[in-house]
Amino acid sequence: MGSQWGRDRTYLRAVREGYRSRAAYKLREIQERFHIIRDDDNVLDLGAAPGSWLQVVRSLTAGNVVGVDLSPIAPLDGVTTLIADLTDSAVWQEVSALMGTVNVVISDAAPKLSGHRSYDQARAIGLGENVLAFACHVLKPGGNLVMKSFQGEDFGQLFGEVRQFFLSVKTYRSHASRKGSSEVYIIAKNFVRCTDEA
Q: 3-state DSSP: the chain helix, strand, coil percent, rounded to 5?
């Protein structure tokens, strides 16, 4: 991330309001528009570092809140964090045992970008498929999923895969995203089924 992007108005607002990153406002927007998280939901955040989405979630629900990331996450009151690879199927069982019912899965995860657009987009789609597979193995019927992706030639494939498992699937571009970003969020509600093909 270039320094010219690091300290814009949204970044400064996040610092002032105590959030760990500007991404907090993206989830707040999504919640206000789509009502993804209810006040008693158990919520799993995949790719959760540095923890700004966990901060928002903790303010929205009295349920269990768990974050998973390859990088350590500084402690947050009332939040459990795991240092783990979300693509490891053993972690699916660990999360299920830890949380019991999972009502909502959220993910703001993105691959480290190389600057090669087609390569980066393919890696982002692959990561999205991994998030979807995890969600399909832990979500309760009727649960919700929010995940970040990037628009491009392969985006339609991922969007179609998500539609196989949820009754309502929409896209949303956040006002808090950086200008010119191809970042887009998939908002999927009412999980209906799971197969090994996810």
A: 40, 25, 40
Provide the CATH number for the domain around residue 156: 3.40.50.150
Could you list the residue range(s) of the whole structural domain that residue 42 is in? 23-191
61 in any annotated domain:
yes
The pair of structure tokens assigned to 41 is 């939901």
Task: Give the model confidence (pLDDT) of 29-63 as tens digits.
Answer: 999 999 999 999 999 999 999 999 999 999 999 99
pTM: 0.89
Please state, in angstroms and rounded to a whole number, the distance separating the CA atoms of residues 143 and 191: 5
Q: How distant is the alpha carbon of residue 189 from its chain centre?
A: 14
Q: Find the helix packing angle between 117-138 and 89-99, rounded to 10°.
A: 40
Selection from 196, 61, 121, 157 nearest residue 45 by Cα: 61
For residue 86 the two structure tokens come to 């979300």
Q: What is the set of active-site residues?
A: 148
Answer whether residue 174 is part of any domain.
yes
Mean pLDDT of 1-14: 55
Residue 124 in any domain: the answer is yes
The span from the CA of 2 to the CA of 37, in Å, is 33
Q: What does the alpha-carbon distance between residue 109 and residue 126 come to, in Å, rounded to a whole number?
A: 11
